[in-house]
Design a protein that fits this description.
The complex is a heterodimer of chains A (177) and B (508). Chain A is mostly helical and 177 residues long. Chain A has 6 helices and 4 strands; from the N terminus they run αβαββαβααα. Chain A has 2 domains: 78 residues; 92 residues, no CATH class. Chain B starts with a helix and ends in a 14-residue tail after the last helix. Classes of the chains: A mainly alpha (177), B mainly alpha (508).
Chain lengths: 177, 508
């Protein structure tokens, strides 16, 4: 019904509800099995390590199951659209770059990945009447990265992984000296 | 030593140029995270935590708490000028604040909001000043069963009083507890729930969860709603400030009532968001100008703002005295306290006298500093919101990623942040609350320790939670809170207040 009346609807709320309930049920099951491995009974020194987490897992699984059942009971009213196709495309257009950014980080280091990420975001902005010029894109992305280096690495002494590129620069700096 | 002496001592400690500078920095950063969509107070405090590791605890808590005050103030700027609540707790401010701004009374609305916020906050701090020592002394007599019962009460109140469906609250909370259990068990030293993955051996940090759930999740929600900033302009002149201040005494009763609501909701884990909504609806019901509510009534700005800040500050009372945070931000700060090697709870007052009173003194000063800073910088922060989303969003995401990485210097945490971001998006859309998850993730280990020790005392009998009047009444109150939705429904039917079928589909 929902699919015919809202042609732009991607998925019904009930499927997402059910999916998330199954996911949390799975987490509950994993927690329970992990606790059983540790022992959930009463050892020489009192409760064994898995004692508390086991009941946490049990509660999690039970509540998830109940959420799933509630979804089935309210199957009809929950046929509303969870997200429209257009809106979801918007979300993915942000989420996928974030995912790529996060996955690239271990290989390229934080600085390079961040600069490319910001530049890509600005370059892709089609909403604006006039796209950003190249100097603007370079200035913002390099500026943001430089600022984070100054603030985190130099000022607050929180070292950030610079990746292979950072290592080369550090090596070049040392050989120059 | 009386509270007054301690307070003076605390003032003495914090009145140094360095600490006041930190206050201003904290407030500015706080307003920034409060104004920016996708960053909020819990998130901002979590992002700053790694930076504070090298500071002394007093400086660190001044920075973090001032960031909290700044974020509370910053949330009202976006609510009034842009009709976009920068913080969940300032949603109620949009109802009348934005209409006022559209009528060209933005400066008046902002001044009223900030000033009443300051009054609410100071009332919260007064409560903290004069009640905390007493509560801490009382709590000194607690042993493990009592502590577990207090935790239970906090968690059950969350479940029973939450606007979200109770079962979803339970699920969120249990995920938090499960997260806390990952890693080394504090009692036996065993590695739990790590499934032989080295990345999980250090456990899952609550900071990473907060950054992902609140930061990335919020950005995804914002993108989906299609973000349009259509802001009103505001210029705050000293004349407007004085004129608005002259009006405020007329609303003394609204302010008083909102303060009481705020303090109550802050001390019990209702939190600032619930407080501001409740205060707004009470004000609307009893106001002489109730027809004007929603169309730009100044009382509709004063009521939620006073309650919001009163709740925000008094949320620190249970955090300091019992080790139970009253809001998500307080939970993150509590986590910070534990990382700095302090033990939140009654012993803090005995062992860390300087820290506690430095913090309380800084709350008086910090809120006044916040008011001055925020009045001076409104135009600046309003212009930040006019920067295009395609520049602000990637920078926010980069800061989140750096924040998640710097917790343990681990790339795995950044990946986790991404996962929590996706989860946060789904949670928000399906009506799962996030605050209980954070609370459970921070308190999980302490609650477990209290439970295990109680079980050791009693040889595994749950009867220990009713073994004396104090712990018994706490446990019973917890169970009452847990089943409150059922009980109140039962009372209503018993008295024949038949309300129509309460279940309605949630579409958001």
């Amino acid at each position: 019904m929902a699919h015919s009346s809202h042609s732009s609807s991607l998925v019904c709320t009930r499927w997402v509800e059910l999916g998330l309930a199954l996911f949390t049920l799975l987490i509950g099951a994993v927690v329970m099995s992990g606790s059983v491995e540790q022992g959930i009974g009463w050892g020489d020194a009192g409760p064994e390590p898995g004692y508390f987490p086991f009941y946490i897992g049990l509660l999690l699984a039970t509540a998830s199951l109940a959420n799933g059942v509630l979804t089935l009971i309210r199957w009809k009213p929950l046929s509303t659209s969870f997200v429209s196709r257009g809106a979801f495309r918007q979300v993915l257009s942000v989420f996928i770059p974030i995912a790529l950014f996060v996955c690239a980080m271990p290989f390229s280091g934080i600085y390079v990945a961040s600069a490319v990420f910001i530049a890509w975001f600005m370059w892709r902005d089609k909403v604006r009447a006039k796209p950003y010029g190249k100097p603007m894109i370079v200035a913002v992305s390099v500026g943001a990265v430089l600022a984070s280096y100054l603030i985190f690495d130099l000022w607050f002494k929180v070292p950030l992984d610079a990746g292979p590129m950072g290592d080369w620069i550090a090596m070049a700096g040392r050989s120059l000296r | 030593m009386s509270e007054f002496d301690s307070l003076l001592q605390g003032m003495n400690l914090i009145l140094t140029p360095g600490h006041i500078g930190l206050m201003v920095v904290g407030v500015l950063l706080g307003i920034l995270v409060g104004v920016l969509p996708g960053l909020g107070a819990p998130n901002g405090v979590a992002l700053l935590l790694p930076i504070t590791f090298t500071m002394s605890p007093v400086s660190a808590i001044i920075l973090l708490s001032c960031m909290y005050w700044g974020a509370l103030f910053g949330g009202s700027i976006t609510s009034i000028l842009f009709n976009i609540p920068g913080e969940p707790s300032s949603v109620a401010t949009t109802f009348d604040g934005y209409p006022m701004a559209r009528e060209g009374r933005a400066a008046e609305a902002l001044t009223a909001a900030f000033s009443s916020a300051l009054i609410g906050a100071l009332a919260g701090v007064l409560l903290l000043t004069f009640l905390s020592t007493r509560i801490a002394e009382f709590a000194m007599t607690f042993s493990s069963p009592e502590f577990f019962a207090v935790y239970l009460l906090a968690f059950c109140t969350f479940i029973g009083m939450s606007k979200n469906p109770p079962l979803k609250t339970v699920v969120a909370m249990m995920i938090g507890f499960a997260m806390a259990a990952v890693g080394m068990d504090t009692v036996s030293g065993n590695l739990r729930l790590t499934f032989d993955q080295p990345a999980l051996m250090t456990g899952i940090s609550f900071e990473v969860a907060v950054i992902g759930l609140f930061g990335i999740g919020e950005i995804l929600c914002t993108v989906e709603e299609g973000l349009v900033f259509r802001g009103e302009h505001a210029r705050i002149t000293p004349m407007v400030i004085l004129r608005t201040w002259a009006k405020l005494p007329r609303y003394w009763f609204t302010i008083l009532r909102s303060t009481v609501v705020g303090c109550w909701m802050g001390v019990t884990p209702g939190g600032p968001t619930a407080a501001s909504f409740m205060s707004y609806s009470i004000a609307r019901r009893f106001s002489k100008n109730r027809d004007n509510f929603g169309k730009g009534e100044i009382e509709g700005v004063i009521a939620p703002e006073t309650a919001d800040h009163a709740a925000g500050t008094s949320a620190l009372l249970p955090m300091l005295t019992l080790g139970i945070p009253g809001s998500a931000t307080a939970a993150v700060m509590l986590g910070g306290l534990m990382i700095w090697g302090l033990h939140p709870g009654p012993t803090l007052f005995a062992e860390q006298h300087d820290f506690v009173w430095g913090l309380i003194a800084s709350m008086y000063l910090g809120n006044v500093v916040s008011l001055l800073v925020v009045l001076a910088t409104v135009p600046l922060f309003a212009s930040i919101l006019r920067i295009p989303f395609s520049i602000i969003a990637p920078i926010i995401i980069m800061v989140c990623a750096i924040g998640a990485y710097s917790v343990h210097n681990s790339m795995f945490d950044v990946l986790l942040m991404l996962g929590f971001g996706a989860l946060g998006y789904l949670f928000k859309k399906l009506g799962y609350p996030i605050a209980p998850l954070v609370l459970a993730a921070v308190l999980g280990d302490k609650a477990e320790d209290a439970f295990r020790q109680s079980m050791l005392f009693s040889d595994g009998h749950l009867g220990i939670f009713w073994s004396n009047p104090l712990v018994g009444s706490l446990t019973t109150a917890a169970l009452l809170m847990l089943f409150w939705p059922l009980i109140s429904a039962g009372i209503k039917t018993a008295f024949g207040w038949r309300n129509r079928h309460p279940i309605k589909p949630k579409t958001l």
